[in-house]
């Protein structure tokens, strides 16, 4: 596993963004782990987060794209932090764009924040996590409505490795099948378990035998076999 992935896993735990225990998801599933990117709140955290995303985007999609689109609301700070980091690490200007939940009819009117998206633009979408792929159903038509646009891919921080809305393949694989672009993650849950199982992180073992058994049981029911 690449060093930046190992560092990112520990960063999620250190930031209290990735937690282990018992959680009820929006889908109703009972999960032994939960990730909340809304808990990245400090300047240092957002700086590091943007650099991890930028590294993963560059590794998976290169730099042949123009716009980084972060769906409202959590995608807004993610896109801003990442375009700043991308410029710092790779010297390329990428424009950020996000959407509003409701369009404004005055001032900076319309449904978009940040840059406009125009014919010929190549776009990478950035999100925190994709459990079922439902959010892309809302995001995809917003981007495509802006003109003759190519979506290069989707980058999330954590691949939960669960079946998507169709109930057969993983959410990220389902997105590729349905929309035709790659969906990648900085790390997968499999890599998280591999790195943290029975290992200390800041003096504490966060995935012990009990949590590991709960994760294994969860994936027996909801895991995507092809992730």
Question: What would the keywords be for this entry?
Answer:
227 residues, seven-stranded mixed beta sheet, 11 strands
Can you describe this structure?
The protein is an alpha/beta fold. Helix content is 39%, strand content 26%. Helix 1 packs across helix 6 (189-196) and helix 2 (43-61) crosses helix 3 (75-90).
Largest sheet composition: 7 strands, mixed
- Spans where pLDDT lies below 50 across 5 or more residues: none
Number of strands: 11
Give the amount of beta strand, in percent.
Answer: 25-35%
Give the rounded overall mean pLDDT: 91
- Secondary-structure-based class equals alpha/beta
What would you report as the Rg, rounded to the nearest angstrom?
Answer: 18 Å
Distance between the termini: 16 Å
Order of helices and strands: HEEHEHEEEEHEHEHEEH
| Total of helices | 7
Short description:
With 227 residues, this protein is α/β, with parallel strands linked by helices. The protein is 39% helix and 26% strand. Helix 5 (171-179) links the parallel strand 8 (150-159) and strand 9 (182-188).
Write the layout of secondary structure elements.
Layout: H1 3-14, E1 18-24, E2 30-35, H2 43-61, E3 67-70, H3 75-90, E4 95-104, E5 110-114, E6 122-126, E7 129-130, H4 134-144, E8 150-159, H5 171-179, E9 182-188, H6 189-196, E10 200-201, E11 204-205, H7 209-222
Parallel strand pairs: 3-4, 3-6, 6-8, 7-8, 8-9
Antiparallel strand pairs: 1-2, 4-5, 10-11
